[in-house]
Amino acid sequence: MRILGENDRLPSGSTVATIGMFDGVHRGHATLVDFLNRKAREAGKQSLVITFLRHPRQVLHADGSFRLILPLEDRISQIGALNPDLLLLLDFTRELSQLDSSQFIELLRDRYGMGVLVSGYNHHFGHNRGETFDDYCRHGRRLGVEVVKAPEYLGRYAPVSSTIIRGQIAAGRVVDAMHCMGRPHVVKGRVVHGFRNGRALGFPTANVGEVDDNILLPHNGAYAVLAHLGERTLQGMANIGKRPTLDNGDQISIEVNLFDFDEDIYGEDISLEFISFLRLEFKMCGIEELKHQLTLDRANARRLLAEYLTTKQQS
């Protein structure tokens, strides 16, 4: 896959293109890009995926509350795994947002060689969000661009959308999100110094800091996770929350207890795959109840991770 920038130009009529944010790069996106690639091969053109550097909501409604499923580098990687010929990264600006769908089609035709536009099954673009697929076809005919609609993803986990997946992650339903995306939700950071309470409890934890605040975190609670440290993959359980039993204040923290592991990893990059929800965070009566609950959580996490890894090997 060749990655293009806004200043690149492509020959007239050389591409079959689709456009979208592709946040989460889920099963619906895979269906779309598979159709795009087939249409491009049939037409003897290159397949072109067009995506944005910034989410439109982060530009038009910049109140800081909106979170993404994937950072840009992972979105690029996951789109690349779908094997389009070209990927164009556009900066979504307020000026771009003022283009109607006809103007946008014309821009893509003139700058990036779009001879065929593949519209996502339920995708809308351009300033006038009330326009329909028939309107896009009408604009396309006038501009000499064929407009076709991609099939809807109708697999086992339908319906699928980035909005649905964000809601699942925000609610802690990481298994549902994993099914919709075809892979676990991932949070990346760096191991930093924390309160050191876990070691005293017999459950030493790595405190995960320097997390991109644009990326959506699962709901506060405990989760079974796979942790990646360089080339190593370790099993563990993570807690997202305020640690109310230990009265550590209101700051949200991410702590992970890595099973059968006791090394100094401060300063190392770490990524967590959220495999399954264990329980909500709640304040317990004391340290002994907390230790008992952590013991139960660890046993449950080991079981769930074993089931996940076995299923993954068989698929």
What oligomeric state do these chains adopt? Answer: single chain
Strand order of the largest sheet: 1-4-3-2-5-6
The rounded distance between the terminal residues' Cα atoms is 27 Å
The first-level CATH class name of the largest domain:
Alpha Beta
Description of the molecule:
With 315 residues, the protein is an alpha/beta fold. The protein has two domains: 2-149, HUPs (Rossmann fold, 3-Layer(aba) Sandwich); 184-314, Elongation Factor Tu (Ef-tu), domain 3 (Beta Barrel). It is built from ten helices and twelve strands. It has a six-stranded parallel beta sheet, sandwiched between helices. It is elongated and about 75 Å long.
Please describe the topology of this protein.
Elements: E1 2-4, E2 15-19, H1 27-43, E3 46-52, H2 56-60, H3 72-80, E4 86-90, H4 94-97, H5 101-112, E5 114-119, H6 133-143, E6 146-149, H7 162-170, H8 174-181, E7 185-192, H9 197-201, E8 206-209, E9 221-229, E10 232-241, E11 253-258, E12 269-280, H10 287-314
Main attributes of the structure:
about 325 residues, alpha/beta, Rossmann fold, Elongation Factor Tu (Ef-tu), domain 3, 2 domains, six-stranded parallel β-sheet, six-stranded antiparallel barrel, 12 strands, about 35% helix, elongated
Please provide a brief summary of the model:
With 315 residues, the chain is of the alpha/beta class. It has helices at 27-43, 56-60, 72-80, 94-97, 101-112, 133-143, 162-170, 174-181, 197-201, 287-314; strands at residues 2-4, 15-19, 46-52, 86-90, 114-119, 146-149, 185-192, 206-209, 221-229, 232-241, 253-258, 269-280.
